[in-house]
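Question:
Write out your own:
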Amino acid sequence: MAPFARSQDKASSEQTKCRLAEIVQYKCDVEQNNQGQPQLHCWPVPRIFRICPGRPAVEMTRYVDVDTQSGEISIPAEASQTLPKGKPWRDVRCYEEKISEML
């Protein structure tokens, strides 16, 4: 039972080293105003990331609960079961032929 407790303690101590970070990106659309002139409208799109030492950042936006009054962010306990696995950028593969087909 002791090894399990140690591994659980290690996991919880690693979790405490993690932090949440927020970035705000903007989605913009061009619309025409009453005079027919183009007008740019932008909306903020906040994104929340979990950043742990030695591991890739993982976007948490869809898994967190945000209190709209205080802005406080909480992570539901079940979120840890459904989080995607992050991977370093060096392991991300890009296939040129698929990109050229989209252009």
Residues 17-76 form one domain. The first strand starts at residue 19 and ends at 32. Residues 1-14 have pLDDT under 50 and may be disordered. The helical segments are 2-17, 79-82, 96-102.
